[in-house]
Specification:
By secondary structure, the protein is an alpha+beta fold. 40% of the residues lie in helices and 17% in strands. The protein contains eight helices and seven strands; from the N terminus they run αβββββαααααββαα. The strands form two sheets. Strands 4-3-2-1-5 form a five-stranded antiparallel β-sheet. A two-stranded antiparallel ribbon has the order 6-7. The chain starts with 11 loop residues before the first helix and ends with a helix.
Protein backbone atom coordinates (compact mmCIF):
# COMPACT_ATOMS: atom_id res chain seq x y z
CA UNK A 1 0.00 0.00 0.00
CA UNK A 2 1.36 3.41 -0.91
CA UNK A 3 1.71 5.63 2.17
CA UNK A 4 0.73 8.85 0.50
CA UNK A 5 -2.59 7.44 -0.65
CA UNK A 6 -4.24 7.82 2.75
CA UNK A 7 -3.31 11.50 2.86
CA UNK A 8 -5.16 12.26 -0.38
CA UNK A 9 -2.13 12.52 -2.65
CA UNK A 10 -1.91 10.78 -6.00
CA UNK A 11 0.64 8.00 -6.03
CA UNK A 12 4.10 9.07 -7.16
CA UNK A 13 4.04 6.50 -9.91
CA UNK A 14 1.00 8.26 -11.39
CA UNK A 15 2.76 11.62 -11.37
CA UNK A 16 5.77 10.08 -13.00
CA UNK A 17 3.61 8.44 -15.64
CA UNK A 18 1.84 11.72 -16.46
CA UNK A 19 5.16 13.56 -16.69
CA UNK A 20 6.57 10.97 -19.07
CA UNK A 21 3.42 11.12 -21.18
CA UNK A 22 3.61 14.92 -21.38
CA UNK A 23 7.29 14.80 -22.35
CA UNK A 24 6.60 12.29 -25.08
CA UNK A 25 3.70 14.38 -26.41
CA UNK A 26 5.80 17.55 -26.42
CA UNK A 27 8.65 15.80 -28.20
CA UNK A 28 6.24 14.51 -30.83
CA UNK A 29 4.84 18.02 -31.40
CA UNK A 30 8.32 19.54 -31.69
CA UNK A 31 9.36 16.83 -34.13
CA UNK A 32 6.23 17.46 -36.20
CA UNK A 33 6.91 21.19 -36.31
CA UNK A 34 10.50 20.61 -37.39
CA UNK A 35 9.33 18.30 -40.16
CA UNK A 36 6.79 20.89 -41.28
CA UNK A 37 9.48 23.56 -41.46
CA UNK A 38 11.69 21.27 -43.54
CA UNK A 39 8.78 20.46 -45.83
CA UNK A 40 7.94 24.14 -46.39
CA UNK A 41 11.57 24.96 -47.16
CA UNK A 42 11.78 22.10 -49.64
CA UNK A 43 8.52 23.22 -51.24
CA UNK A 44 9.83 26.78 -51.65
CA UNK A 45 13.06 25.45 -53.15
CA UNK A 46 11.02 23.47 -55.67
CA UNK A 47 9.04 26.47 -56.98
CA UNK A 48 7.54 26.22 -60.43
CA UNK A 49 9.90 27.34 -63.21
CA UNK A 50 9.14 30.77 -64.70
CA UNK A 51 7.06 31.05 -67.87
CA UNK A 52 9.04 31.73 -71.03
CA UNK A 53 8.63 34.05 -73.98
CA UNK A 54 8.32 31.95 -77.11
CA UNK A 55 11.15 31.35 -79.54
CA UNK A 56 10.65 33.63 -82.55
CA UNK A 57 9.11 36.43 -80.46
CA UNK A 58 10.25 39.97 -81.19
CA UNK A 59 11.58 41.77 -78.14
CA UNK A 60 13.02 45.03 -76.97
CA UNK A 61 15.82 44.37 -74.50
CA UNK A 62 18.83 45.95 -72.87
CA UNK A 63 22.35 44.64 -72.47
CA UNK A 64 22.35 45.15 -68.73
CA UNK A 65 24.65 48.15 -69.06
CA UNK A 66 24.27 51.76 -68.01
CA UNK A 67 23.59 54.45 -70.57
CA UNK A 68 20.97 52.77 -72.80
CA UNK A 69 18.13 55.29 -73.07
CA UNK A 70 16.16 52.87 -75.24
CA UNK A 71 16.40 49.14 -75.68
CA UNK A 72 17.74 47.08 -78.53
CA UNK A 73 15.55 45.06 -80.87
CA UNK A 74 15.97 41.36 -81.47
CA UNK A 75 14.41 37.98 -82.14
CA UNK A 76 14.41 35.34 -79.40
CA UNK A 77 16.17 32.28 -80.85
CA UNK A 78 16.57 30.27 -77.64
CA UNK A 79 14.69 30.19 -74.34
CA UNK A 80 15.39 28.09 -71.28
CA UNK A 81 14.16 28.02 -67.71
CA UNK A 82 16.53 27.83 -64.76
CA UNK A 83 15.04 26.39 -61.56
CA UNK A 84 16.69 28.94 -59.29
CA UNK A 85 17.99 31.52 -61.75
CA UNK A 86 14.88 32.48 -63.71
CA UNK A 87 14.61 32.46 -67.48
CA UNK A 88 17.51 32.87 -69.89
CA UNK A 89 17.37 33.85 -73.55
CA UNK A 90 19.52 34.16 -76.62
CA UNK A 91 18.46 37.07 -78.79
CA UNK A 92 19.59 37.81 -82.34
CA UNK A 93 19.69 41.53 -83.14
CA UNK A 94 19.26 43.33 -86.47
CA UNK A 95 23.01 43.18 -87.13
CA UNK A 96 23.14 39.41 -86.66
CA UNK A 97 24.80 39.53 -83.24
CA UNK A 98 23.69 37.11 -80.51
CA UNK A 99 23.03 38.37 -76.98
CA UNK A 100 22.66 36.07 -73.94
CA UNK A 101 20.26 37.88 -71.60
CA UNK A 102 18.24 37.36 -68.43
CA UNK A 103 14.47 37.73 -68.17
CA UNK A 104 14.88 41.05 -66.34
CA UNK A 105 16.59 42.50 -69.42
CA UNK A 106 13.53 41.93 -71.61
CA UNK A 107 11.50 45.15 -71.71
CA UNK A 108 8.67 44.07 -74.00
CA UNK A 109 7.79 41.21 -76.34
CA UNK A 110 5.60 40.90 -79.42
CA UNK A 111 4.20 37.96 -81.32
CA UNK A 112 6.51 35.89 -83.49
CA UNK A 113 6.63 36.80 -87.15
CA UNK A 114 5.60 34.30 -89.82
CA UNK A 115 8.46 35.68 -91.92
CA UNK A 116 11.00 34.09 -89.59
CA UNK A 117 11.93 30.78 -91.20
CA UNK A 118 15.58 30.90 -90.19
CA UNK A 119 17.57 32.91 -87.62
CA UNK A 120 19.34 34.60 -90.51
CA UNK A 121 16.01 36.19 -91.41
CA UNK A 122 16.12 38.35 -88.27
CA UNK A 123 17.12 41.58 -90.09
CA UNK A 124 14.18 41.14 -92.47
CA UNK A 125 11.73 40.46 -89.65
CA UNK A 126 12.99 43.38 -87.58
CA UNK A 127 12.98 45.95 -90.40
CA UNK A 128 9.46 47.23 -89.67
CA UNK A 129 10.19 47.43 -85.94
CA UNK A 130 13.38 49.39 -86.55
CA UNK A 131 11.42 51.82 -88.72
CA UNK A 132 8.97 52.40 -85.84
CA UNK A 133 11.78 52.76 -83.30
CA UNK A 134 13.34 55.56 -85.36
CA UNK A 135 10.16 57.66 -85.31
CA UNK A 136 9.42 60.51 -82.94
CA UNK A 137 6.45 60.09 -80.58
CA UNK A 138 4.40 62.49 -82.72
CA UNK A 139 4.96 60.25 -85.76
CA UNK A 140 3.45 57.12 -84.23
CA UNK A 141 -0.10 57.70 -85.43
CA UNK A 142 -1.62 59.39 -82.36
CA UNK A 143 -1.63 63.14 -81.81
CA UNK A 144 -0.84 64.29 -78.25
CA UNK A 145 -4.34 65.78 -77.96
CA UNK A 146 -5.91 62.40 -78.75
CA UNK A 147 -3.61 60.67 -76.27
CA UNK A 148 -4.91 63.08 -73.65
CA UNK A 149 -8.48 62.08 -74.53
CA UNK A 150 -7.49 58.41 -74.13
CA UNK A 151 -6.01 59.25 -70.72
CA UNK A 152 -9.25 60.92 -69.60
CA UNK A 153 -11.20 57.77 -70.46
CA UNK A 154 -8.56 55.46 -68.95
CA UNK A 155 -8.72 57.45 -65.71
CA UNK A 156 -12.12 55.90 -65.06
CA UNK A 157 -10.60 52.41 -64.83
CA UNK A 158 -9.52 51.10 -61.43
CA UNK A 159 -6.98 48.60 -62.78
CA UNK A 160 -4.06 49.08 -65.20
CA UNK A 161 -4.95 48.72 -68.89
CA UNK A 162 -3.21 47.24 -71.90
CA UNK A 163 -2.01 49.42 -74.78
CA UNK A 164 -4.81 47.96 -76.90
CA UNK A 165 -7.43 48.95 -74.33
CA UNK A 166 -6.08 52.49 -74.08
CA UNK A 167 -5.60 53.27 -77.75
CA UNK A 168 -8.58 51.21 -78.90
CA UNK A 169 -10.89 54.02 -77.78
CA UNK A 170 -9.24 56.22 -80.42
CA UNK A 171 -9.06 53.66 -83.20
CA UNK A 172 -9.03 49.86 -82.89
CA UNK A 173 -6.81 49.65 -85.98
CA UNK A 174 -3.95 51.24 -84.03
CA UNK A 175 -3.17 47.88 -82.39
CA UNK A 176 -4.17 45.45 -85.13
CA UNK A 177 -0.72 43.91 -85.68
CA UNK A 178 2.40 43.16 -83.61
CA UNK A 179 4.24 46.05 -85.27
CA UNK A 180 1.40 48.42 -84.39
CA UNK A 181 1.44 47.11 -80.81
CA UNK A 182 5.15 47.94 -80.74
CA UNK A 183 4.32 51.46 -81.95
CA UNK A 184 1.73 51.74 -79.16
CA UNK A 185 4.31 50.57 -76.63
CA UNK A 186 6.81 53.15 -77.92
CA UNK A 187 4.21 55.88 -77.67
CA UNK A 188 3.05 55.04 -74.14
CA UNK A 189 6.62 54.79 -72.85
CA UNK A 190 7.81 57.94 -74.64
CA UNK A 191 8.18 61.30 -72.90
CA UNK A 192 4.67 62.34 -73.92
CA UNK A 193 3.24 58.94 -73.00
CA UNK A 194 4.79 59.17 -69.53
CA UNK A 195 2.98 62.47 -69.00
CA UNK A 196 -0.28 60.52 -68.84
CA UNK A 197 0.57 56.92 -67.94
CA UNK A 198 2.78 54.89 -65.65
CA UNK A 199 3.96 51.52 -66.93
CA UNK A 200 3.16 48.59 -64.62
CA UNK A 201 4.55 45.42 -66.13
CA UNK A 202 3.08 45.18 -69.61
CA UNK A 203 0.14 47.43 -68.73
CA UNK A 204 -0.38 51.10 -67.98
CA UNK A 205 -2.05 53.02 -65.16
CA UNK A 206 -3.52 56.45 -65.81
CA UNK A 207 -1.83 59.08 -63.64
CA UNK A 208 -3.73 61.42 -61.36
CA UNK A 209 -4.81 64.75 -62.86
CA UNK A 210 -2.44 66.74 -60.63
CA UNK A 211 0.56 64.65 -61.71
CA UNK A 212 -0.44 64.97 -65.38
CA UNK A 213 -0.70 68.76 -65.11
CA UNK A 214 2.80 68.98 -63.60
CA UNK A 215 4.35 66.62 -66.17
CA UNK A 216 2.62 68.36 -69.07
CA UNK A 217 3.84 71.75 -67.88
CA UNK A 218 7.41 70.45 -67.67
CA UNK A 219 7.20 68.89 -71.14
CA UNK A 220 5.80 72.04 -72.71
CA UNK A 221 8.51 74.13 -71.08
CA UNK A 222 11.28 72.05 -72.63
CA UNK A 223 13.37 73.29 -75.53
CA UNK A 224 11.79 70.87 -78.00
CA UNK A 225 8.20 71.56 -76.93
CA UNK A 226 7.34 72.88 -80.41
CA UNK A 227 7.18 69.27 -81.60
CA UNK A 228 3.93 68.82 -79.67
CA UNK A 229 2.19 71.88 -81.07
CA UNK A 230 0.57 74.92 -79.52
CA UNK A 231 -2.84 73.28 -79.32
CA UNK A 232 -1.56 70.62 -76.93
CA UNK A 233 0.57 72.89 -74.76
CA UNK A 234 -1.92 75.73 -74.46
CA UNK A 235 -4.77 73.53 -73.22
Amino acid sequence: VFVGASLGFAPLVSISTRTSSYSLHRSAVEYSLRRSAVFLKEASDEAEPPSLHGVGSICEFDEGKQGHARGLLGVIIKAESKAKGGARYEVLDVDGRTHPIKAAQVRATFAASKKLKDPLDAPLVLADYVSVAEKAPTELGVEPEMLEVAWELASEADAPLSAKQILGVIDEALCASPVQLFAAYRLLTSEVGRVFFKAIGDKYKAKAAKAVAASKSALCSAADADAYGDEFCLV
